Amino acid sequence: MSTALGNHILVEFMNCDPHIMNDVAAIERDMVDAAKKAEATVINSTFHHFSPYGVSGVVVIQESHLAIHTWPEYGYAAVDVFTCGEMNAWIAFDYLKESFQAKSYSAIEMKRGSVNLLTRNDFDISSMRQKAKEWVNPGFYTRNVWFTDKDENQALSLRFTGDVFYDHQSPYQRVRILESYKYGKMLALDDMVMTTENDEFHYHEMISHPALFMHPNPKNVLVIGGGDGGTIREVLRHPGVEKVTMVEIDGSVIEACKEHLPKIAASFDNPKLTLLVDDGIAFVQQASQNTYDIILVDGSDPVGPAEGLFSVSFYTNCYNALKTDGILVAQGESPKFNEKAFRELNHTLQDIFGTDKAPVSLFYVPTYPTGMWSFQYGLKGNINGPYHQNGAEIESFVSSQGLRYYNSALHNASFALPNFVKELIKK
Ligand code: SPD
User: Is 167 helix (H, G, I), strand (E, B) or coil?
Assistant: First the structure.
C-alpha cells in the first residue's frame, strides 16, 4: 500500500526547440496529449501566451495536474506533473521530452502527502460521495488558451479555441490566423492582434471614410501596408475613386487573409486595384511627386517591418507624393498604450504638414490593448478638414453601403480630443 497521497515530478526540459516553447497552441496540445497518454482524465486546460515570449499553462486532470512555464529565449520549460492513484507520471514526461525536442533534462520525484505525517479526519463523507456521483463527466474538457498582446505593464487577452489556421514565419514576421471565441478569426503578426472578423470594421471604416469625405474629389489613392485587404475594401466602396495602389511588404499576410479572412480580403480582384508586394517605404521614396489624392498608411506597430513607417523621412516622402491638395492618414497607435509613439508621430506630422494640419481621430477597437486607438492625419494644401461639410451625403453613403461604425456625427466627433490627449501632443 502506498505511503503517500500523491506523486509529484518536477522536470527541467533544456535546449528545447524555441519555436515550440513559444507556441501556446502546440504546448497546450502536447500537454493535453501527454496527460491522455498517461491515461489521465482531462478536466480542463488553461494556457496563456505572453508577448513577446513565453507560455504558461495548466492541465487539470482527475488525477491532479500538469503545469508548465516556458522561456523560449533559453529553450527551457519548467514542467511539473502531479498524480495520484495509479497514473504513471513518467509516461507524460517521456511524451513531453519528445514533443519539445528537449536535448537535455533533469527531474526529481517527490512523494506528496505522506500518510505517516497526516491524520485522517473521522467524519461522514457519504453526502460528499453522493454529490460526486451526481457529477456527470460531460465527456469533453474545457480549453482555456489565451492570446495576449501586451507590453511590460498592460495586456489584452483573447481566449482562443486553440485552433491555428495559418502559421508562417515570413522574412519579416510571424503571420498567424487564430480563432478567438468572442471575435472570430484573427490575424496576428508577431504576437500582436492586427484585426479580427468581428471588430475589423471599426478600424477599416475609420481609416478610410473620413479622409474620402474630407477630400473634395479623391480619385487616386495609395495604401501602404493593409495586407488583410480591409482598407482597400472600404476605399473601393467610393465610386469616384478611379485607382487604388496598395503596397504590402509581406505577401504571406495577403495569402493568409485571402484564404482565412475572405470577408476582409474581399476586394483583391477589383480592377481598380494595383497590388504590389513590395517595400512601402522604398515605394514612397521613389514615387513621383504630386501623384496621390490620399495616402493611407495601414501599418502595424512600430516594431519589426513597420518601424520605418514611423520615421520623418517616410512621412516627408508621403508629403511629396501627395498632390498639392492631399490627405495622409496613418495608423496612429494609442494615446493610452504607447504614448511615446503616438506623440512622436503627431509631432512628425505637425513638423511636415504644419501645426494646425495634423489632426487626430480617435476610435475604439476592443481587440487592441486599452481599446482606444487613433488615426493621425496630415492635411496638405487647401484641404478643408477635418470636419465634414455635407452630413446628408455621408448618411446616404452609410446607409447604401451598410456601414457599421462610421457616420456623419462620428466623423466630427472622432476629432474631438480628451484634454489629456491634447496635452500629450502639444508642442
Ligand atoms: N496594435 C495594432 C495596430 C494596428 C495595425 N494595423 C492593423 C491592420 C488592419 N488592417
Answer: strand
Looking at residue 310, the DSSP 8-state letter turns out to be G
Question: Cβ neighbours of residue 277 under 8 Å, at least 6 residues apart?
Answer: 248, 249, 250, 251, 254
In the reported structure, the alpha carbon of residue 423 is separated from the centroid of ligand 1 by a whole-number distance in angstroms of: 25
Is the whole model's pTM more than 0.85, yes or no?
Answer: no
With a 6 A CB cut-off, is 248 part of the ligand 1 pocket? no
Q: How close is the Cα of 176 to the center of ligand 1, in Å? A: 14
Let me know if 257 is exposed, middle or buried by CB neighbors in 10 A (0-12, 13-18, 19+).
Answer: buried
Residue with cell 514615387: 287
Peptide bond into 52 cis (omega under 30): yes
Atom of ligand 1 nearest to the CA of 306: 5
Digit-coded pLDDT (tens) for 196-250: 999 999 999 999 999 999 999 999 999 999 999 999 999 999 999 999 999 999 9
Show the DSSP H helices in 291-401 as ranges. Answer: 312-321, 339-353, 391-401
Which whole-number Å values give the CA distances from 303 to 281, 333, 365, in the listed order? 14, 12, 20
